[in-house]
Every structure is written in C-alpha cells, then in structure tokens.
Give the backbone structure.
Amino acid sequence: MRNKSVRDMRLWERQQFSLESKVFRQAVVGAALLGVIALLAAVSLNIVSFVRQEIRTSIGMARSTAALAEAEVDMAGMAKKVREAYDSLSEEMRQDRSSAAYRAQFSHVRYSQDYVILQRILSAAYSADEVDDIYIGYYDEKTHALVFIGVPEEDVSAGYFTGGWERVSRNEIHKFNHWDGEGALYHISRTKPYGFLCTSGVPIYDSEGNIACFALADVTFMDLIHGVRDYVVQYTIALYVVVCFVGFLTSFRMRKMTVEPINEIAEAAEKYARDRLNGISGTEHFSSLEIHTKDEVENLALVMSDMEEALSEYEEDLTRITAEKERISTELMLAKRIQANMLPSVFPAFPERGEFDIYASMDPAKEVGGDFYDFFLTDDDHLAMVIADVSGKGVPAALFMMASKIVISNYAMLGNSPKEVLRMANETICKSNREEMFVTVWMGILEISTGKVTAANAGHENPVLSDENGHFEMMKDKHGLVIGFMSGVRYKEYEFTMKPGSRLFLYTDGVPEATSAEEELFGNERMMAAVRAAAAVPLPAFLGKIRESVDAFVKDAPQFDDLTMMALEYRGQEIQGKGEAENEHSENG
Amino acid sequence: MNIQKTVEGKAVTLVPKGRIDTLTAPDFRQAVAESIEGMDALVIDCSELKYISSAGLRVLMSAHKSMLQKDGMKIVNVRPMILEVFEATGLDEVFDIE
C-alpha cells in the first residue's frame, strides 16, 4: 500500500491519525497496562496476606483448643485408647468404617465423661466460626490415615467421628509426625469438596514427650477466591473508568496545548500563502497568534512570526530596490535616446547629394556606449567622417564620448584638417581628463568633387577600402597615439583617393573582437571575408549584411563591447550627372 | 587572470597571464598599484599575455605616467598580437617596448 499524505486523507482518516487520537490511544493503553500490573500486584499481595492471616488464625484456634483440651481432659490417655482400638482392628473392619460394628469398637471413648467435655470444647471453638473445622486426631503412618479422636459434629458417612479416619497423603503425615517444632505447622491440600484446604495443627504430648495427637483446624479458601473475584471485577470497572478519564483528560490537554495551536499555525500559514499570492504584504497572521504553551509549539509560532516579519521586510527592500532599478533603467533608456539622438541617424543622410552615400550603425553592449560615429558637411565640397571608441563602457564612457564628439565636430566645423582637429581635441581633452580615459579616433575628410580623402588616425582600427571593382583591402595607415593620454601629441595625416564606385568601411574594435561562446575572436580575417562577401550588396544593406556574419559567428554569446560600423560609397560627378539625367528623364516622363 | 610578481632591488617585474579585459583589469590595476609602491622601475613581462583590451591599456597608461618621475616602465616579451594593439593605439611610440 502506498503511503498516503495527510492531504489525501478523508476526514475520518485524519481523525484516526490525528495527534489527539494518537495521544488518547497511548494514554489509554499506558493507563490500562499500568492498571493491570497494579491489579496483579495487589491481588497477589492480597492472597499472600489473606492466606497468612488464615493460617495464623487457624493455628491460634488449634493452639487454644489444644490448651483447653489438655487442661480439662486427659488427652494423651484418650488418644492412647483410640490408637489401641484402631490398631487392634483388621484391615477389613477399618474399610467398613461407617458400620455400627466399627463404631462400637470406640464407644468406650465416645461415651466417656472426658469425651463429653472435649466435645463441648470443640463445639464451642467450632461455633466461634473463626475456622471451617476444628477437631482432634492423630496421623497413623501404617495405614496412611488421619484418625479422628474428637470432632465437634459427627459425619458418620465421611468417617468423621471418634475412631473414624480419612486417607491423607504421606507428605502430610510425615510433616506432622516429624515436626521439629520450628515455625507454623500446617499443610495445604487440594480437596474435592472444599478446593484448597489448609490444615494447621498443634501437637499434644503424652507424659513421655511423644506426640499423642494434634488439635487440628481446617480453613478453606473459598472466601478468598470469591473475595478476589469480586475485587477483580470492582477493580476492573474502576480501572476502565479511570483509564477513560485519563485518556480523555490527556487528549483534551493535548488538543488545548498542541493540536489547536498547530492548527492555528497551519491556518495562519494558509492565509499567509493566500495573501502573498494576492500580493498583500505586511500581514500579521503569525505575529497575531496567541500561543503561550511555553514549549516547541510556541517556539514554532515565534519562528514563523519572525519569518513573516523578515520576509515582509525583505519584500519591502526588494520593492524599493526594484523601484530604484527601474528608475535607473528608465534614466539609462533616456540617456540611450539622448546619445542616439546625438548621432546622425536618418538614412539616406544626404538624399540630395548623389555623389556619395553614407550609412552607419551603433549597437552599444550596455544601454549606453562609448563608441560613436559622426559625419557632416564642413562645406559644400567637404564631408567630415569620424569613428571613435572610448575606452571603458557604460555611463562614464558615454559621458566621455559625448564630450569627445562635440569637441571633434566643433574643431572640424572650423575647417581644420584632420591632424589639426585631432591635435586640438587631444589638448582639450587632456586638460580635463583626470580619469585616464582615452578615445581612439579615425577622422577623414572627403573632398566630394575629387574623391580625395585626407585622414588621420589616433590609435583607431585600420580602415578598409575598396577599389571601383569592389575589391576590399585593409589600409595600413599611420597610427598616432590615442586621444586623452598626454598632451603635446602631433598626428600625421595621409591621403588617398576614392574612385567612383569604391567604398570605405570604418568600424570599432567591437567587430574584430566580437567573441563566440568558445571565446574565439571574430578577427580581422573573418571581418575582411564578411566585408568582401557583402561587396555586391547595395550600400543601405551593406552594414546589415556584415552584421549578419558577425551574429552568425557569435551566436548567443553575450557581447561586452560596443559594435559600431560606418560605410561610405563614393559615386563621383559622373554618376551624379547620370543620376541627374535620370531625374530629368523621369521629370520629363 | 593570474599575475606573477618578482622583486629585484628597486625593480618589480609583473607577469600577467591570460586576458586583461574589462572584467580582469581592476585586479591588474590593483596589482600594479601595490607593486610599484616604493619601487623605481616597473617591468611588464607580456610573454603569457594573450589579450589586452582598452581597459588594460588604461592601466598600462596610468602605470607609465606613475613611473615617469622614476626609472620608467618597460614592457618586454610582447607577442605580435599584443604588439599590434600597441601599434594600433600609437602607444608603441610612447611605451618603452623591448
């Protein structure tokens, strides 16, 4: 049978297994067991003391009877006469003990003056009702018989008269005839009509000091057996009442002290769980419990109350922390939007300029990033392009990035060449940079009319350039020191010319250092392969295509660096002219 | 990351092992700061360095600045991959690389 949980039980089963009924059963069984043991002890003690008392009484009776008889009557002589008559009889005659002939053999004793006195003594002792019978007799070893000398009331058929006899055990005969005078002389035998019968004797001696006969007193234990039976019945009834009382009292106490408090705790726990599910906090289900049992149950209630309080506090803390986190998160979202709004984000960026097109994207690893890109026309013929990567991440990098972006674009808008812009930006940033942040910057200025690019690199990644046939190569340009490290740095400038149809791909280290779950870097080779694979893709989808390759490589591995890319396609005057012709054509159409 | 440190007179040599990135740079920064206290010369042995991010570069840059008034910071046993990073950032012109 599988074990049933208390939850699966029906009501009657719960009652059967409840603590209260367990305690009741245990108390009843315990009390009953104790009662039965007490009963057995009491009964056996009772029997022993009763038997002792009876024996004492019978010996006392026998002793006083013997004393009286010896004083009034010549008991030794009487005994001698009976003995002589008994011994003279043949075995056949003895067997016929109820016959008048047999009895006639003892009539000289029976009808003597002494016997009348003896009989009176015995009758008086008998009628005192202390013993069941009292008589005078001797034990005859030859015939194994107890021969009666004097009896209070004759019973001829039972051989109970002067000279009559009854068969007794050798054991009894030996015990009486060879008594050493120590202790009480008695013998307990089992007889048919009386059950257990105790015969106590006091010897009467003749002039020579031999035992002439005994004063004998019989007690039966019928009274004792009846007494014990009544006692057991009464005791059992009393025990039943006491046991039930103890059981009910114990289970009542158990219910008051344990079961009800436990049920209260269970009920409080249920309410508490329900309230929690419904989102009610700060409850006092456990602390409002009134349990003062001063035991483990009270301790349990206190522990539960502490738990409720601690959980409530914890929840409050959690709510506050969550709210705080939400606030920070909201602020970060706002910061992200502000940062994104700082960067040109409408594409195509210059729909009116057919000579070139430019796209860019930035994906910060956190809400806000340290990468940025920028592009703007410094005049009609010059497009400035900036891609930069601030060391570090998150809010500090984002703040540094904002400052860098503004400084660089301000200097560029003044018409400075890239090396000058970088030098001036470095001086400005170094002056106020206490945090040892730095920013890597690649900056180029495209002369739109000719395709000539003047560029300077302050510690940034190598740009990637394609020729007019879409063949991409990484440029090994001259790198100056990162911006923000130390003042007085001068940057070198270089030039290259883009032919119509060629593209320039700029990026931050988030691209080559994108990391897979196996901790492998995307690397320059894979990046170049991705760029080349995207060569034929129109510019608006070009960066997205490269991004797909990066994503396919890193899969679900979390990225720790911002990922920023920018791509310029130079179309030149010719294509622009062609574009204008097309426009004219469509206008004409 | 695990950083091995040996002191010889007033010169301390650090051997960073593995990667110095955003996560491990704070440990590297602390190790450097503790090591250069009372020292005249700092040597960074890059023989066991696999990767260094911009956060790691910042630590080197600040160490370089701290050692300018003394005997300077030297970078030795630079692998090609790490050297590329120094070259790309222009730091190869600033640091004393052997």
Observations:
- Chain B has a mean pLDDT of 89.
- The first strand of chain B starts at residue 2 and ends at 8.
